[in-house]
Amino acid sequence: MTARAIDMSNIKQRLNQVLDQIHRAEKKYQRPHGSVTLLAVSKTWPLENIIEAAAAGQYCFGENYVQESIAKIDTDTKQLEWHFIGHLQSNKSREIASRFDWVHSVDRLKLAKRLSAQRPTDLAVLNICLQVNISNEPSKSGFLASEILAVAEQISLLPNLKLRGLMAIPAPSDNFEQQRAAFRQVATLQQQLMEQGLALDTLSMGMSGDMEAAIAEGATIVRVGTAIFGPRNKPVPIGRNN
Ligand SMILES: *Cc1c(COP(=O)(O)O)cnc(C)c1O
C-alpha cells in the first residue's frame, strides 16, 4: 500500500470517528439526531485532503486564510460548501463576499456592511454569524455581548446577507464544566437576540478539544480541524490569522 493510500483511509476513518462522537453527544444531551453540522476545518491542508474528505461524504469546509482559501475554492469542481472562519480584514472582504457561502467571523458593523455591498447579486445571500468575544479578552477579535445586542438588528436588515446566529472561540480550557459555562453564555446571548425578534438558527461553537461541551449547550455547527486532518504543521493563533 502506498503512503498516500494510508493517509486517505486515515482521513475517512477520523471523519467517521468525529461524526460518531457528534451523534453520541446529540443523544446524550437530548439533541435531535442530525441537529449538529460538522464543519471540517481544512486550513493549511491541500485541496487533495479536502477532496479525500469530500469523497468520504464531507460537504462543508472551513478556511481561515484568504489567499489559501481562494486557491482552493477556485479549483473546487465539487461545489462544496465553503465557510470563512478566520480573522477578516476589510481590504479582503470583496474576495470573501464573492466566493464563500458563509462567514462566521463578522466582528464589526462596517465589515457586515461591506460584505453586503460586495456580495454579487447573482449569488444566494451570504450566510453570516457574528463572532462574540465571550470571555471579554482584549486580545481576541469579536464583538462584546453588549455590542451585539446593539447592532444585530441593523445587521439583520442588510440586503445581501442572512444573519444566522453567533460564533465563539472561548478561551481554551481542559475543564468540561468551564467549557460548558462559556458556551452557555453564547447560547444565552443568542436567546436574548431571539427575544428581540431575530430569527436565528445557528450557534457555531466547539472545536476538536471542546466539541462535546459545545453540543451540550446547543451548538449547531462544530468547527473541527485537528481531529479530522491531524495536527497542523505550523501552529497559528486561533481566530487571529489571515
Ligand atoms: C483552526 C480553527 C478551528 C479548528 O480547530 P481544531 O482545534 O483544529 O479543531 C476552529 N475554529 C476556528 C475559528 C479556527 O481558527
Task: Return the structural class.
Answer: alpha/beta
Q: What is the helical fraction, as a range of percent?
A: 40-55%
Shape: globular
Distance between the terminal alpha carbons, to the nearest Å? 37 Å
Examine the coordinates and then state which fold CATH places here, giving the name of the CATH topology. Answer: TIM Barrel
Please report the total strand number as a whole number. 8
Radius of gyration: 17 Å
The tally of helices reads: 9
Largest sheet: spatial strand order: 7-6-5-4-3-2-1-8
Q: Could you give me the name of the CATH homologous superfamily?
A: Alanine racemase
Portion in beta strands:
15-25%
Question: What is the CATH-assigned architecture?
Answer: Alpha-Beta Barrel
Sheet bearing the most strands, described? 8 strands, parallel
Q: Which ligands accompany this protein? A: pyridoxal-5'-phosphate
**Under the CATH scheme, which class?**
Alpha Beta
Mean pLDDT: 93
Describe the protein's architecture and organization.
The protein has helices spanning 3-28, 47-55, 66-74, 93-97, 109-118, 145-156, 176-195, 211-216, 226-229, and strands at residues 37-41, 60-63, 81-84, 102-106, 126-132, 161-168, 202-204, 221-224. Strand 5 (126-132), helix 6 and strand 6 form a beta-alpha-beta unit. It is an alpha/beta fold and 242 residues long. It has an eight-stranded parallel sheet. The protein is globular and about 45 Å long. It has nine helices and eight strands. The structure holds pyridoxal-5'-phosphate.
